[in-house]
TrEMBL record:
InterPro entries, per database record: Calycin, Fatty_acid-bd, ILBP
Keywords: Cytoplasm, Lipid-binding, Transport
Residues of the Cytosolic fatty-acid binding proteins domain: 8-25
Name of this chain's protein: FABP6 protein
Record's signal peptide: none
Name of the coding gene: Fabp6
GO CC term (a single one): cytoplasm
SUPFAM superfamilies: Lipocalins
UniProt-annotated location(s): Cytoplasm
GO molecular function, a single term: lipid binding
PROSITE patterns per record: FABP (PS00214)
Annotated family: Belongs to the calycin superfamily. Fatty-acid binding protein (FABP) family.
Organism annotation: Rostratula benghalensis (greater painted-snipe)
Pfam families assigned to the protein according to its UniProt record, in alphabetical order: Lipocalin_7 (PF14651)
Lineage: Eukaryota, Metazoa, Chordata, Craniata, Vertebrata
């Protein structure tokens, strides 16, 4: 534990199953359009088990989730809903259950790989490290 494997800045590189997933979780069509191939920059600061996870969207909007592994935290979903979740660390992956999807994040081959699953629909987003 305590490795700083996640710290860094990552730029959206590609995704799989975006439309099927965001439709499944009920995002409105304007948000779906806005998010498609969106060059989101994800900035992660890891300090032991404490994380600050910020997503910078084109146009200046940002969302930030602060959490500690194993402790309940206030979080915000892709669609902007607030909820409480306890984030876990399993085999080097960050794991969280959002209200309508299960989310994992890991560093693989120097890239940030995030996988969200909702009712059997699997959405994968890959971001390359830029800082």
């Amino acid at each position: 534990q305590g490795n700083m494997a996640f710290t860094g800045k990552y730029e959206f590189e590609g995704d799989e199953n975006y439309d099927a997933f965001v439709t499944k979780i009920g995002l409105p069509s304007d948000k779906i359009e806005m998010g498609r191939n969106c060059k989101i920059v994800t900035e992660v600061v890891q300090n032991g088990n404490d994380f600050t996870w910020t997503q910078h969207f084109p146009g200046g909007r940002t969302t930030t989730n602060k959490f500690t592994i194993g402790k309940e935290a206030d979080m915000e979903t892709m669609g902007g809903r607030n909820f409480k979740a306890t984030v876990k660390m399993e085999g080097g992956k960050i794991v969280a259950d959002f209200p309508n999807y299960h989310h994992t994040a890991e560093i693989s081959g120097g890239k940030l790989v995030e996988i969200s699953t909702s009712s059997g629909v699997v959405y994968k987003r890959t971001s390359k490290k830029i800082a």
